């Protein structure tokens, strides 16, 4: 992207992201034009996927991307987009917490509150917590 465009982008990022990017830049010796093109293509695909999700939800995005790129590539892109956006979703801290810690925190909450929290967790973690909750 060059120093001007790169610095303009970095100014808009949170400190944590700047640190991650700086670390990666420091560890890269050189990037070939082919690698650069691959990275830019992937970035554009992920942004298109985000736009599709905003326009019509995840299934709309999946349909459009599948038609444009094939099912496997569409699933790969949507997985990356979903993973990248998870950290900015509500309950991001809960997503990082251990299932047993979550269980201790939410076990005395109303069922609706528990359901709301569980819907923002990874499926396997939500299943773990749900399995350990008392039936009443």
Automatic annotation (TrEMBL):
Query: Where in the cell?
Result: Bacterial flagellum basal body; Cell membrane
Q: Which InterPro entries match?
A: Flg_Motor_Flig (IPR000090), FliG_a-hlx (IPR011002), FliG_M (IPR032779), FliG_N (IPR028263)
The name of this protein is Flagellar motor switch protein FliG
Q: Which GO terms describe its biological process?
A: bacterial-type flagellum-dependent cell motility; chemotaxis
GO cellular component terms given for this protein:
bacterial-type flagellum basal body; plasma membrane
Q: Which organism is it from?
A: Clostridium perfringens
The residues forming a coiled coil are: none
- Per UniProt, residues of the Flagellar motor switch protein FliG middle domain are 100-136
Q: Care to name a GO molecular-function term for this sequence?
A: cytoskeletal motor activity
Keyword list, A-Z: Bacterial flagellum, Cell membrane, Cell projection, Chemotaxis, Cilium, Flagellar rotation, Flagellum, Membrane
Answer whether the UniProt record assigns the keyword Cytoplasm to this protein: no
Membrane topology per record: Peripheral membrane protein
Similarity section:
Belongs to the FliG family.
């Amino acid at each position: 992207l060059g120093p001007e465009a790169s610095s303009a982008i970095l100014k808009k990022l949170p400190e944590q992201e700047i640190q991650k990017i700086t670390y990666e830049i420091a560890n890269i010796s050189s990037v070939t034009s082919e690698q650069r093109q691959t990275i830019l293509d992937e970035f554009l695909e992920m942004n298109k996927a985000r736009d599709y999700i905003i326009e019509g939800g995840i299934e709309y995005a999946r349909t459009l991307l599948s038609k444009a790129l094939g099912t496997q590539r569409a699933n790969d892109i949507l997985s990356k987009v979903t993973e990248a956006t998870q950290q900015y979703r509500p309950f991001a801290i809960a997503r990082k917490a251990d299932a047993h810690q979550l269980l201790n925190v939410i076990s005395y909450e109303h069922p609706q509150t528990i359901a709301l929290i569980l819907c923002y967790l990874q499926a396997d973690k939500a299943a773990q917590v749900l399995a350990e909750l008392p039936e009443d």
